[in-house]
Specification:
Helices cover about 35% and strands about 5% of the residues. It is α/β, with parallel strands linked by helices. A hairpin with a 5-residue loop joins strand 4 and strand 5. Helix 2 crosses helix 3. It binds zinc ion.
Length: about 425
């Protein structure tokens, strides 16, 4: 195993540094791919610092295609790679886009060796080695796009442990019941039937075990993409119909490119920090602030209860925005809702500044819209930087904080 120490050689932000933690705060090893067909620790560091405004590179280790391991941070550094799980995870990134490339032997072996070394150093067991997609809130993230069950199995073999069967959860639901919607985390015979069908169609859902895990989720998404329907990883009526009618198109599935860079841009942090639920019309009906937010934006009666009317309005909204019409508020619909401008723009409410966790709200969105940065409603480093730039241009004091003075410059009309 060849490890090159680059801890003090990569681009860093002069003004910011990552927070530190104790070793025993570390509970997971996170495996990523870079989602770029080529790259290096140097290039990722430049991108994370110069383009995203982060303190330094997001990953602790970067593994090159030839198996060279680049050591970027001590494990105690809380760098950015899995949003709100950053505090508990060490990140390894394999250079490559494994939605379209395959992982070569040298790189795979080096990553396995490195992971074993870290498991040993940090006292982490094999079941706590997770792909990015397996972290809470990242079900939608195609990272690292390798089979993590196999990866863990190989780790266990190399470590001499037997973990067979340890992933089967005991609360398996048997029976002929066919649920209307199946999504990640569901278990049962209807999931088993789904996996069999996916397998039959060549979409390899992983073990046919009746558990809707990350591989089944991934297979559903590949199927949806291939069938030309909305890609949300949820099996509802539309997907079910497509599954029964699907004739296949040989083995060349259309593979869509992943996002150009892997990492926890702020939108990713947003999903995690808000841990937004998938909202849908079920019994008992779902309730909460998030339901209210949806109702406001789709023009349903705002009572915080996701019922029939809300579902109809969500469908209308989806139809108008060219989304797959299923009445379910999943990641795609959430993103579309985020882009909707509220009719009444908020006026100045409070001082906005970079804090941990990030401040959020419609006032932040309004600032972001005005400054042409991604509108996610979270006052993160990119927003702060844009505010500083704005203040510099306006010739007012540059502190990255939106107080009454900066606000009045941003919105002279109020
Ligand atoms: Zn990732």
């Amino acid at each position: 195993m060849e490890i090159i120490d680059k801890r003090n050689q990569l681009t860093q932000n002069r003004n910011r540094s990552y927070r530190q933690r104790s070793r025993n705060a570390i509970q997971n090893i996170a495996i990523h791919h870079s989602a770029t067909t080529s790259g290096s620790a140097e290039a990722f560091a430049r991108y994370h610092v110069n383009n995203l405004g982060w303190p330094g590179i997001g990953y602790h280790y970067v593994v090159d295609k030839d198996g060279t391991i680049n050591w970027c941070h001590n494990a105690e550094v809380v760098s950015y790679h899995v949003g709100n799980s950053n505090g508990r995870a060490v990140g390894i990134c394999m250079v490559g886009d494994f939605t379209q490339q395959s992982l070569g032997e040298a790189q795979r072996n080096a990553t396995l060796d490195l992971t074993l070394m870290l498991m040993d150093q940090l006292n982490i067991s094999v079941e706590n080695v997770w792909g990015h997609i397996e972290f809470p809130g990242y079900e939608w993230k195609q990272c690292p796009s390798i089979n993590m069950e196999n990866f863990r199995r190989e780790l266990a073999e190399r470590a001499g442990e037997d973990i067979s069967g340890s992933y089967r959860s005991p609360n398996y639901v048997a029976g002929v019941r066919q649920r209307n919607y199946l999504s990640r985390g569901d278990q049962g015979d209807d999931v088993l039937a789904l996996q069999e069908r996916l397998n039959e169609l060549g979409f390899k859902p992983g073990p046919i075990d009746g558990i809707f895990g990350p591989q089944t989720y991934d297979a559903v998404q590949r199927f949806q993409r291939s069938a030309g329907i909305g890609v949300d990883g949820i099996v509802g009526p539309e997907t079910r119909t497509a599954l029964s009618n699907y004739e296949g198109n040989g083995n060349d599935e259309e593979i869509e490119h992943a996002s150009p860079t892997d990492e926890p841009d702020e939108s990713e942090e947003r999903f995690n920090s808000e841990s937004r639920r998938m909202l849908r019309h079920i019994r008992p009906m779902m309730r909460g602030e998030d339901v209210r937010e949806v109702q406001q934006k789709v023009g349903a009666m705002v009572d915080g209860v996701f019922g029939n009317e809300t579902e109809q309005k969500v469908r209308e909204f989806q139809r108008q925005h060219g989304l797959s019409v299923d009445g379910i508020v999943g990641p795609q619909t959430w993103r579309a809702l985020d882009r909707v401008n509220g009719d009444n723009q908020p006026s100045y409410q409070r001082l906005l500044s970079l804090q941990s966790p990030y401040m959020r709200g419609d006032d932040v969105k309004r600032v972001q819209r005005e400054l042409n940065v991604a509108v996610d409603g979270l006052y993160g480093p990119v927003t702060e930087r844009a505010v500083r730039n704005f203040q510099r241009q306006e010739g007012i004091s540059v502190d990255g904080i939106v107080g009454p003075h900066t606000w009045s410059r941003l919105f002279p009309g109020g």
